[in-house]
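Quick start: load a record and inspect it. Here is Phosphatase PAP2 family protein:
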Amino acid sequence: MMSWNAAVQLGNTSIMLPVTASITAWLLLARQWRLALWWCVLFGTGLGIVIATKMLYIGAMAVGQASDYKGASGHAMLTSAVTPVAIALLLHSCRSRVRQAGLAVSALLCCCMTACLVALKFHTLQEALHGLALGATVSIGFLWRMRRHTMPAIHTWQISAVFLVVVMVGYAKPAQLERLMNDFAPHMFRYTRLLPPATLY
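Running the structure step on this input writes:
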């Protein structure tokens, strides 16, 4: 049980958001401007969908109209969006078989994360699969675009700069995101209930 809990912790925002920032920083350092923009748009859209589904649940729960669906799993989405991309970038200069093996390992990790979330009852199967599918869409979309670009080799100074970004973002306490959703969602939901039905579409 402890090992499963430890596995789930790998999908926390305190780990995955710094890795996401590292990916962005590395792309910028490599002067891959379009790839960096593509990554930010894809990841931001995926994270935004997760936040929206969770806020709808929190807001509905605050006014006594909550459903059994708590929103797409953020852990599953973050893991399946970030892990394959990080591994692909680290192994981009390796042989094709090594890159394929790395992507296979990342896919296995994503599936294990989804299974752990369901087994430990953090999410229903539906919520976990929705997060997994959303994250996979983000990573596959980025990797598909990445095939058209020639990635430069990673240099020591680039790795050092990326590591600095990881440390700085880690101190930003990304776990505050959940608290902000808990504070804001009920007010937003109460406000939308006061609007005419036509304005909600």
